[in-house]
Amino acid sequence: MTKSFDRFRAHPWHGLPVGDDAPAIVEAYIEITPFDAVKYEIDKQTGYLRVDRPQGSSALPPTLYGFIPRTYCADRVAALTPRADVGDLDPLDICVLSQQRIDRAEIVASARVVGGIRLLDDGEADDKIVACLTSDTVFDFAKDLRHLPAAVINRIVHYFATYKMDVAGTGENSIEVVGTYGADEARAVIQASMDDYAEHFPSTGRRAGD
């Protein structure tokens, strides 16, 4: 039994650790599950989960989806994305694969990074890191994005390529899929986001054990 504990709930973005083995293995705070027809998003002021909007189309998220704590997508992340004007100034998004049904959000999952999807959202770098639940032995074979079935990758790419599409009939879509990348590039993106965070939020510091 541990005698060291947090007396108060940590802010999911600023208070949770990124993980001792980051950027290879990271902690992921999950906002949305594959069974959510509503998009939930962290309220950056309070740390509570806020209802953002109903999903714009009939498609549901193909994986657990959230962000990596203590990351920030600013100039360093934008520099890794061709034609990006800026980063999206949010924590770095992450998709976590699990073979078993996980149907609740506001959870923390340890995830092994295997790759990512490079997106532009109105000129902003909006990367989606792809990772596997570390405790899920079914995915032990996946060390890089290329090890995953093409159908799995295509499903994730299709969701993000269309999830902001205007279903009212105008055809407007702010998202452009630039491409995908493997584990090495994903780790570089995560490191860049950690460095951006350290620059923009220097007062948060690091707690013992982070």
List the helices and strands and how they pair.
Layout: E1 25-32, E2 38-42, E3 49-54, E4 64-67, H1 75-78, E5 86-87, E6 93-97, E7 107-121, E8 124-125, E9 128-133, H2 150-162, E10 175-182, H3 183-200
Written account of the structure:
The chain is an alpha+beta fold and 210 residues long. It has one domain: Inorganic Pyrophosphatase (Alpha-Beta Complex). Helices cover 17% and strands 29% of the residues. The protein is built from three helices and ten strands; from the N terminus they run ββββαβββββαβα. A five-stranded mixed beta barrel has the order 1-4-6-9-7. A two-stranded antiparallel sheet has the order 2-3. It is globular. The protein starts with 24 loop residues before the first strand and ends in a 10-residue tail after the last helix. The C terminus is likely disordered.
Q: What is the terminal separation in angstroms?
A: 19 Å
State which percent range the strand residues make up: 25-35%
Radius of gyration: 17 Å
Q: Report the total helices.
A: 3
Kindly report the oligomeric state of this protein: single chain
Order of helices and strands: EEEEHEEEEEHEH
CATH fold-level topology: Inorganic Pyrophosphatase
